[in-house]
Amino acid sequence: MKKNKSQLAKLLATENIEVQENAVKTASFDVKNRVLTIPTLKEEHKSKHVYDMLVGHEVSHALHTPADGWMKMSDRSDEFRSFVNVIEDARIDKLIQKKYPGLTNDYLLGFKKMYKDNFFGTKGRQQSEYALIDKINMYYKSSKTLNFNFNKKENHFVKLVDACKSFADVQKLAEDILGYCKEEIKKNPELKKSYAPKESGDEESKGDNESESSDNTKLDKDTEEKLQEFLSKETGESNKKDIEDKKDSQVGTGKGADGDSILTSLTNDAFDDAVQKMQNEDARELSYVEMPKVRLEKLIIPYKKYIKDYAMYDSKLADYEKSNLSMIKQDTVKFLKESSNVVNYLVKEFEMKKNAKMYARASQDKTGVIDPNKLHTYKFAEDIFKKITTVPNQKNHGMVFLLDWSGSMQHHLLPTVEQLLNLVMFCRKINIPFSVYKFMNPGSSYDKAKGQNHSDHPFIVSDKTLLPDQTTRLCQMFTHKQSKSDFLRCAQNLHRSAKYFNDRRSWRNPDHINAPSISSDYYLSSTPLNESLIAMDSIIKKFKNDYHTDKVALVTLTDGSANSLHTKNGGEVRLKLNNKYVKCAYAYRGTDKDLTYRLLKYLKKKYDLDTIGFYLASKYRELRYMFQVPYKKEALANSTFNKQKFIADYNTGYDVYFYVKSDTNVVNTVYDDKVTANKSQLKRMFMSGMKKRLNSRVLLNNFIKMVA
Fold first, then answer.
1. Domain for residue 611, yes or no?
2. Tell me: the pLDDT tens digits for 595-606?
3. Is 410 exposed, middle or buried (0-12, 13-18, 19+ CB in 10 A)?
4. Do 630 and 680 belong together in one domain?
5. Predicted confidence (pLDDT) per residue in 238-257, tens digit
């Protein structure tokens, strides 16, 4: 059905009308919001041409039938409304096909299938069995391809149908055709038989009568009158009126108040019944929503505040914790210094790959100026002109990082943070714009956002949007514009926090340093990854404008298990992305990997992003949920992970998602310079060291390949 809708999406874009499928019984149009809702069809009826025909028809109603047109006819007879419906269908179908000629073929082929499937109840019936209203209905439903033997008077009415310009014209003509058809049926016995009234509930009343006669409960006239008199006295006149109203309502639907038959279009009634049977009664209710708007000033915690909050908290630490804090800060400085070799390697590889790609796109053109060095070859070669090599201009690059600050990351947080610091130093070294955020919803932020003050909420929501967690915050830790001293403070705070959570499981290690506690505002929390990706729609736009970048890479470091997002009505979610509604996972169930996938694809298409994901794990079994491979390939995947130290996955929504062994480090030397060994030992150590060195650089090479 996605392909079916693509043509209509282009069609409807100019009319500002959205078409939504849902578990409804009848089509409806929301005039205010310009939303057309149609029933979900059974799979066997999801023909492209039938679907497009039905949607085109309903859209034309939305565009051309007055919104209050049917409401104003509420006091008119069923006969009149039936005739108006047929003629109005002919008018609006003509208008939509005139406006969008591409639908004509859908109307022709859609009708052909419906006619074949007896949607109009015409199977086994002759033209002579139909009154003019049904001939008109079939004539226009078939786009005038069915031949009918119209007499002179009927041809006059057909021309008047063609001439209808407005809904008022339709109503006036319906009156005239209704009068003609009534006279026509009175004169023609065959038509009178076709349109003979059917008593309401023939089948049901038959069964009721049988049950009544079986227990002899039928009352004679005298007894019934006495009963009515008794009920009137006991319950009052209002009850008597209810009984009379009920009796009136039970008059057969095939007869009018004067005893005449109610004349409606047989083919149109059959069509309405057939369309109802097409509906999928088991269809799930769908929620059609958009992404909420974001207030970045409420969502983002600036790095200046991040530094200030830590400084205020540290000032109140106990003396022993301040001593440990000093050692932790020195440990961070030591780590940054030791990482310089890794960073330099990244820079070298980046420059090599960037230049290689740049010159691969270079082109040579003739200048029109003779090259003296080639002049001697003029007798046997035409290429005697100087050439100029044109190298395309380099694009301005930028990088945005998202760090998962959730409880599930605790056991891998320290190596993840250290990998992130390497990447940040790489960006600083090559002087490309970057910004780093950790996403979270912890501590007092939760209590504050949970309150009634909606002005603190970062997301502007409604009944028609996803409902993200309003406690979500993005803490900006690093940015291209921050000073060296601010970078160091942020790095120390981040590294110290990672060590603090790591200490919770490594306190038995006698060599570790107890990292001092941190503020509850920056505790590990849940995983608002999808909320963060929604925010990226605004952040990346601002980032590109601020730094004038042509190309941006979005890098996430997470375990990939996002919180679920809800909608007001629940059910299966259809999210509007790039002016199209796309299917997402059930918004009330578990993690929302499908939504993550959709958001990544949306951002990539909108901003031409490179999307890269990192997930650090100590063992392969931790990846089974994320990296879903067939059981038969489990052993191979496990072996690859242990040997190569990472697995690259290309089916997660990211351009590439790296599952990295958490103990992976870059080896910079092939052996210890201080070691004393003989020649054969040195040879073995050299070969072993070279192997480790090459293996350790595979991941970095893959990353550089993506961003170069």
1. yes
2. 888 999 999 999
3. middle
4. no
5. 444 444 444 333 333 344 44
Pairing of β 656-661 and β 646-649: antiparallel
- For β-strands 646-649 and 580-586, DSSP reports them as unpaired
Amino acid (one-letter) located at 502: N
Whole-prediction pTM = 0.71
467-489 pLDDT, tens digit each = 999 999 999 999 998 999 999 99
Question: What residue type is assigned to position 294 of the chain?
Answer: V
Residues 544 and 563 in one domain: yes
**Residue with more model confidence, 430 or 220:** 430
Asked if residue 326 is part of any domain, the answer here is no
- Residue 92 is encoded by which pair of tokens? 């609006």
Res 30 pLDDT > 50: yes
The Cα angle at residue 543 between residues 561 and 299, in degrees rounded to 5 = 55
- 593 and 698 part of one domain: no
Encoding tokens for residue 485?
Answer: 């001293």
Label residue 574 by pLDDT band (50, 70, 90). confident
Helix spans in 253-409 (H): 266-278, 296-299, 303-314, 319-338, 340-360
- Dihedral in degrees, nearest 10, Cα atoms 297, 300, 303, 305: 60
Whole-angstrom distance, CA of residue 503 vs CA of residue 173: 85
- Evaluated on CA atoms 544, 547, 550, 552, the torsion sign reads negative
Q: Apex CA 444: angle with CA 460 and CA 555, to 5°?
A: 60
In this structure, which amino acid lies at residue 419?
Answer: Q
